[in-house]
Structure formats: C-alpha cells, structure tokens
Amino acid sequence: MASPTSDTKQDVITVYQGRPNFSCSQCAAVITLQDELISKHFSGREGRGYLIHSAVNVKLGKKEDRHLLTGVHTVADVFCVGCNDRLGWFYHKAADQSQKYKEGKYLLEREKLIKDNSWTLDD
C-alpha cells in the first residue's frame, strides 16, 4: 500500500495501461475503466448516460438538490481535470429508498466519453 507521500502515478499507469477504458472526448484524459460500468440505461442532460462505480481525473462541483427523472437527488456536477469539460454528475444522496443504490456512483454522459477497447493486432 502506498504511503500518503509516495508518488502513485506509476501505480495508476499500471492499473489503466492496456485495459479497456473510457476517456474524455475533449482531451483524452482517462476517466474510468470499462469494468466500472454498472448500467448503460441512464439519461443525462444531453442524452444517454452510464452509471459508473468510480472515476479518476475528475473534480466535483458544488452539491445541490436536483429534480431528476427518478426523483430528487443531491448531486454534484463532475468535471474533467484535463479540460474542465462537464462529464455528468456524482450522486451524493437519493431521497427515495428505491434510488439509494445510486449513492456514491457517477452518471457520465455517453457523448462526453471515448470508448477505448485497447485492442492490439497480432503481427
């Protein structure tokens, strides 16, 4: 386990290198592994969205209560640290008991992501 003062950059590169991931469509910063995908059946502000377990290279905006299709949720917009493009939002809290599974997860807009399957061609 890395100490709080150690450089974890190499660890991040090792985890993400060669693995299928989603990157920012504006600056190509890696945002999440495809393994973190929970569901493709969500709606964002600008169309289809993905519910994701975790993300990197993102920063959160301020918390706010927002009326979404499934009720009121406390969310914060999610921005790419590379280009500051808004990618979606983070679910802090769900008012409805049936929506609690979203808490601590990300809704990322499909149109804001590039899917990299990390395929290699054999020589």
Automatic annotation (TrEMBL):
Name the domain of life this protein comes from: Eukaryota
GO MF annotations in UniProt: metal ion binding
Pfam families cross-referenced by the UniProt entry: Yippee-Mis18 (PF03226)
Instruction: For this UniProt record, give its keywords in alphabetical order, as a comma-separated list.
Output: Metal-binding, Zinc
Q: Which residues form a coiled coil?
A: none
Record InterPro entries: Yippee, Yippee/Mis18/Cereblon, Yippee_fam
Q: Does the keyword Metal-binding apply?
A: yes
Q: Give start and end of each Yippee domain.
A: 20-117
Q: Does the keyword Metal-binding apply?
A: yes
Could you say which protein family the record assigns here?
Belongs to the yippee family.
- Report the protein name in the record: Protein yippee-like
Q: Which organism is it from?
A: Gloeophyllum trabeum (strain ATCC 11539 / FP-39264 / Madison 617) (Brown rot fungus)
